[in-house]
Amino acid sequence: MEKEIVIIGAGVAGINAATKLVDNGYPGRLITIIDKGNDPYNRLPEEVMTGMLGAGGWSDGKLTYHTAIGGVLSKYCGEEKAMELMDQVINNFRRFHPKPEEIFCSDPQAEPEFIKPYFGLRLFPVWHIGSNYLHEIAKAWYQYLLDKGVKFEWNTEVDDIDFNNSRIYTHNTTLQYNSLIFAVGKSGIDFAQSLSNEYKLPTEPKSVQIGVRFEAPQKYFQKLIDISYDFKLYQKYDNVSLRSFCTNNNAAYVAVEETYGDITYNGHAKKGKEFENQMTNFGILMEIKGIDNPFEWSRDVVNKLQIDGKGLYYSPNQTRKPGLTSEGTTVSAHQVDDYSLDDIRNAMGGYFSYVETFIEQMNEVFQFGDDYGIYIPEVKYLSPEPLVNYNDLSLTNYNNVHFSGDALSARGITVSGAQGIYIAESILKKN
Ligand SMILES: Cc1cc2nc3c(=O)[nH]c(=O)nc-3n(C[C@H](O)[C@H](O)[C@H](O)COP(=O)(O)OP(=O)(O)OC[C@H]3O[C@@H](n4cnc5c(N)ncnc54)[C@H](O)[C@@H]3O)c2cc1C
To answer: I need a surface site. Which of 57, 154, 242, 275 has the fewest CB within 10 A?
Structure first.
């Protein structure tokens, strides 16, 4: 019998799944990929999250190669299989790259002595694809799938899914599937949540991820940046672990994020000499285990850390002010003084002291004195992770519906793509 596979989301997970299927002889005409964004020829630069290759298609193109980075993979399939799946994703990017010889790998080998005894440094290889090549990769990859007969529906948003009758609905069509790969990424987080509520999908317990965005002149951190550009310092206590996260250098800007009506902070790096500001910024994120209702707890903390519709900025050196955005305006934040630190400590339920210790100990190593500032808070609201069968990532209640990528538990390109391939392998085995 011919089995129709529908993939919602032409992002990294969905496209890698389709590629694995057709590479292994699955007829492309039986695969339909639906995406609310544009094909790679019509996708505009400002369409950051949607369209061919999804958020990964317009990203920085850094492919991390470690099972502790980028979300959960080895939990489902074990360490060895996880690495093999990630190899397949990297090979796919290489295969459709116009200049594969320009892909390079940074691979720090040893923790530098100077960060000890306070910190560990996560060592992992990163393949740099080059963000300016991602568009060309997307086009070549798209053409390959079209040539194999895969059908694409662009600018088409899936509004609802009937898991009981295996049907999906868009504004003007209904499609029947035998297998569904649900790969909607972060831009589909609300849709995933609504399905989770509607079908009362059981979910995995999640931890809280909250902290601050740290900013200081780059010169203090240069000796570490020379070893690892996107360095990941970490510390571990009983139920709390801390890590530096998403480091930006050279032309590094703090960005305001508005989520659920509150202000939180993030950062990004620009390319181009004209943007250079010789600053470094990174998140200092705590992962706190064992909090009931982590999502509600985080939202409540974030809400308490707002003044006049802004997040907070603190520097022990009161002449240091919030920095400039890449557009040249001041990062929107309410500057607080030493007296307000107690309010912040209370709002974070006592956990802020871990962040303070992390900063004090960084100061021992990097000697930046009072020449820094923190934007409060930075938060990661982790997507609800539905409970899946570990052998094929299918929902425990609906075994022909497979969740993957950021809609499951991934937080990066390699893990998302690897989950897509893992699902495709299970479908191939069944057929
Ligand atoms: C600016 C930026 C930079 C990043 N840089 C990196 C990096 O350098 N390295 C790294 O590892 N990760 C990076 N990431 C994260 C990475 O891009 C994601 O983890 C990855 O793309 C997730 O893959 P996915 O397939 O799950 O989802 P996505 O790639 O986000 O794809 C989901 C697709 O689903 C579609 N969709 C959503 N809802 C619907 C719906 N209801 N109906 C139809 N279609 C729908 C969207 O249009 C989208 O194309 C970055 C993300 C951003 C935003």
So the answer is: 275
